[in-house]
Structure to design on (760 residues):
């Protein structure tokens, strides 16, 4: 059977075929079969979406906007379904009159329906988890994993039982940040055992499952969802007070799935991490709207990398002239000690990311979500993350640890 | 794990397929003996097979594009979009015809970075028109299609792939010298798709951006292996945020005290002017991200890919780094990286 359309006789027919192909956003290559049969028979064709042959890109997106909830709402209505589709999960799926000619008809009529039994298993498994927190961000590289790791350390130090689940499948950072590289996952008859940093802090990540840490995980959405489901179903967390879930940036498969799977068991809320830059705040606003749309409470926003602060003596100095650059650190420090010794007792602050437009605090005020606090950019915190240490364990992270401690206290209070 | 790469190699073999699955693209898919009882049997026997006609359309459309460059990173927030934007500005200033395609569907940063927020996409009979920053620099992003910039784009993989396909098929770039493609972080749907769709028309190579941190380098190694696996040449790695550099006069100063902190910036600057004026001619450098383990340069050496150079914090907010005198720290480094890239073309 040909999959490419036969040339249509009428010019209108030609247009419809062309637009049917361009508007088809499913994995199918050609327009639905019923379009062609209708054209040949001379019947007027009503595309299930709209009747215009040309739409502006913005209009196309608005159309899709109607289905944005499809991933999380009730009754999946696929893109290429007929009008009046009863929904793929309905009793009549594939059998209703409206289904005649729909490309999904056979699948709907034969596929199993009803609630996903895996979700039932997840609810059972997570019944022993008191609080579930998601750590999200629209933007990448703002410090979600660093924050998740330090939050877990902080909660564990307060003598809570803590679990940390890393659902970033393509770029799992958690094993590194907790000093657990090279560890394996063991199984018991109760399920998969998390990898324990301390007796009350267990961790799970795909990072533990890669034979070679440099192996790329080149998976499309459905496969990632499958693993996330397995993490929720099969990992034996035991009885824990807090399950912290570290998500990748964005609002795609992982995020839709984690909300879908956890919704039955209840999500306490999401903590959103950002930096002060406008480019981050744009994405974070989207993330806040995602949470509102899917009904996850936003416990608050953390502004990370909120300025760099270090003693003047920690800086390097370079002098540039026509020939290039020379390191002038030693000269500069001696010069300061000699001529301006009082400078050695001050802290030098740089605003690495421009927050002149108000930063995250102003955005929280505008969007009606709590602002949890600012964490300065602290090279010592970066080092602690690289080495898998808690920033609260010693006094080195003097710039960032107090700020983080405050934020954790605020979170516990709201719980 | 290669299965997710679907389309490369011969025949997709789904996870739950029977043993001896002939592959979903095979002639006997769904009909072979081995297919009996396989959950995908019905889909395989009824779904259309053969090469994707959209890929043919993409090849035609991109025939007028001389060079296609991907900007990738395993890690988020390292400066891919910033680098893509500045690279496009640089190439445009060298009088090339440039296109910049943003395939980050969930978090499109390019409109902001080029100062094009609020712009719309117009259509002509030739297709969708890119939004032009300058007469020789056109941009396409989902950011231009959102009614409200705060709207979250909550799409699963297949839908994102569909839009990326549409960007490649329907956008009328015209005859351009360079098409830069800014990807989101990771090695998932968008990356698999862009490689699949562009492979027929030829990808010149990819530039990988990272920061010096080990946590970034772990993800970047994965990205380099992704490129090797899918056969995309790695033109080089750029180490961004390689230290923060600014004149002393740009710093703020605070004095920690018992009552809290006091801002002493004015006092400090006057003190310096009076007692140690030579300090005003030096640049203060901070290493924000620890690169004591060798950073990106060492990683490139280990993985056998070219190292293009280091960048300090680059400009944002719609300005070309070269047009602005404030980016005195990063513009020369960026310029030399761009020159290296052009040479390898």
């Amino acid at each position: 059977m040909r999959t490419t359309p036969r040339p249509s006789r009428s010019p209108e027919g030609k247009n419809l075929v062309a637009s049917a192909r361009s508007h088809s956003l499913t994995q199918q290559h050609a327009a639905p079969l019923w379009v062609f049969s209708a054209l040949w028979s001379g019947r007027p064709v009503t595309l299930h979406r709209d009747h215009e042959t040309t739409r502006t890109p913005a209009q196309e997106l608005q159309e899709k906007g109607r289905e944005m909830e499809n991933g999380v709402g009730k009754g999946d209505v696929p893109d290429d379904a007929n009008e009046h589709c009863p929904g793929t999960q309905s009793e009549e799926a594939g059998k209703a009159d409206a289904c005649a000619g729909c490309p999904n008809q056979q699948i709907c009529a034969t596929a199993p329906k009803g609630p996903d039994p895996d979700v039932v298993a997840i609810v059972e498994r997570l019944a022993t988890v008191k609080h579930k927190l998601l750590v999200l961000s629209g933007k990448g590289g703002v410090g979600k994993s660093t924050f998740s790791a330090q939050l877990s350390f902080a909660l564990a130090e307060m003598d809570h039982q803590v679990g940390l689940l890393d659902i970033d499948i393509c770029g799992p950072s958690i094993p590194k940040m907790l000093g657990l590289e090279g560890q394996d996952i063991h199984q018991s008859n109760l399920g998969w055992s998390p990898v324990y940093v301390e007796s009350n802090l267990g961790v799970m990540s795909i990072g533990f499952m890669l034979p070679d840490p440099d192996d790329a995980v080149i998976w499309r959405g459905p496969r990632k969802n499958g693993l996330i489901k397995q993490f929720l179903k099969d990992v034996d967390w035991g009885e824990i007070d807090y399950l912290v879930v570290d998500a990748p940036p964005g609002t795609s498969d992982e995020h839709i799935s984690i909300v879908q799977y956890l919704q039955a068991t209840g999500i306490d809320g999401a903590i959103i991490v950002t930096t002060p830059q406008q480019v981050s705040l744009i994405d974070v606003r989207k993330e806040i709207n995602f949470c509102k749309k899917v009904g996850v409470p936003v416990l608050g926003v953390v502004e990370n990398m909120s300025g760099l602060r270090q003693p003047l003596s920690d800086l390097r100095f370079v002098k540039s002239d026509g020939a290039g650059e020379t390191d002038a650190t030693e000269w500069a420090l001696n010069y300061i000690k000699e001529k301006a010794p009082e400078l050695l007792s001050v802290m030098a602050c740089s605003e690495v990311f421009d927050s002149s437009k108000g930063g995250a605090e102003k955005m929280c005020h505008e969007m009606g979500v709590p602002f949890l606090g600012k964490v300065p950019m602290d090279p010592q915190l970066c080092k602690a993350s690289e080495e898998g240490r808690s920033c609260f364990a010693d006094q080195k992270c003097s710039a960032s640890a107090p700020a983080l401690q405050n934020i954790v206290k605020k979170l516990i209070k709201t719980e």
Q: What stands out?
A: Chain A is about 35% helix and 15% strand.
